[in-house]
Amino acid sequence: MQLPLAQYTGTLTERIVSAIRAAVQARQLAAGSKLPSIRQFASLHGVSTFTVVEAYDRLVAEGILLARRGDGFFISPRQGQRQPVAPRQPQKSIDAFWLIDNRFNPADGDSQPGCGWLPADWYDADGLQRSLRSLARSGAPTGYGDSMGWLPLRQWLAQWLQECGQPARPDNTLLTEGASQALQLIIRVLVRPGDTVLVDDPGYCNLITLLDMAGARVIGVPWTAQGPDCQQLARLMATHRPGAFFTNPRLHNPSGASYDHATTHRVLQLAEQHACWIVEDDVSAALASGGPGPLQALGGTERVIHVGSLSKTLAPTLRVGYVVAADTVIDALLNHKMVSGLSSSQLSEQLALGMLTDSGYRRRLQKLQQRLLAANLATRERLEHLGWQLFAAPAPSLFLWARPPRELDPLALTEQALAQDILLAPGILFRPQRESTPWLRLNVAYLSEAVFDFLATASQPLP
């Protein structure tokens, strides 16, 4: 049913909440009935999915709705009513927005070739335990800590980044709760509602969501196997005059591709020509080998804001990211960081430095690179044998951007996989406007024999 949102006052979110609340009170929505999915409701009423997410969340908090993982949202049973409860297995479902709308959390037994992280046994658990024991002996921090982040870690990072040619100093390096918080802070500083920003297409789905929530006008820059299409980038910058271009230049998520030297120089040239900030999301820098270095090493802090992460190679539980930028930008980011959380976790930062300064760190990092490259090559060989098309050259990347044969619909393929407890990531999730695409993102560390068997069956020609 379509609700009369115009009859109610307040923000759009408040009008949706009021309309659903009134429909429940008038018994137009029966107890136990299922509401449209977030995507369906947004399409029916011509509103943003993020507005619907906020409205549904408020109604869950009020007790008007129940959220069932994987199933959707339901009208809560009215007080005093008893309803029979039957045993049921969680029902997995999918549409183009399943990852965003349902915020899907996989069950323990699910295969996860669509996920964005390494398996637990690929991380240095022993190194983390050693760092924990060392910190326990010296005494764990109990205060808030420095709002810029723990100074010894900033000093270590500045020295390491200087070796890569970056103009990093302890006082222009801000530590954050992972790269996600770094991107959130940057968006708050750079982006206002209605501003035009450019992103990689395909690109990092969480970043696209953050920009949408900030009210930005998000435009995708098509990617090639060597980075963004610079002819299209030049046209888009000249036409739209964006304030920022958010890009992932090395071991790109989701494609696994990296900028080549010509693309690096051209992107920086265009950014200077059009006075556009480059926000360099370089979270896989420690795994990158060969090719051009970070954009900031050539472009400096006057035009490039560099975002990095230690969580990708140390341990996801250590939410440690960082930003290197001009002093004025760091000051603005620090103000927002202090308002939203005062400081980042000095405990995590001390544990991270303990792992980074461990005598075996560089050797283990090299082994991780080699393991990822071997998995990438082995996966490529098997997929190409099945007739799949691969986007980028081999690299020590977690991701492959792959296109199935015979025009298989990635959404249909993902739904078939869910029925077998296999979680894929259809490419539509990584497009700025969720445009249809025949590509998928695959995580080479999670491609088990069961996953390959499924893909082999799905790839067979139709009779």
Total number of distinct structural domains: 3
For the record, give the distance between the C-alpha atoms at the N and C termini, rounded to a whole number.
42 Å
Gross geometry: globular
CATH superfamily of the largest domain: Type I PLP-dependent aspartate aminotransferase-like (Major domain)
Strand content: 5-15%
Number of helices: 16
Tell me about the largest β-sheet.
8 strands, mixed
Write down the overall mean pLDDT. Answer: 86
For the largest beta sheet, what order do the strands appear in spatially?
3-10-9-8-7-4-5-6
- Structural class category: alpha/beta
Radius of gyration, CA atoms, in whole angstroms:
23 Å
Question: Key features?
Answer:
463 residues; alpha/beta; Arc Repressor Mutant, subunit A; Aspartate Aminotransferase, domain 2; Aspartate Aminotransferase, domain 1; eight-stranded mixed β-sheet; four-stranded antiparallel β-sheet; 16 helices
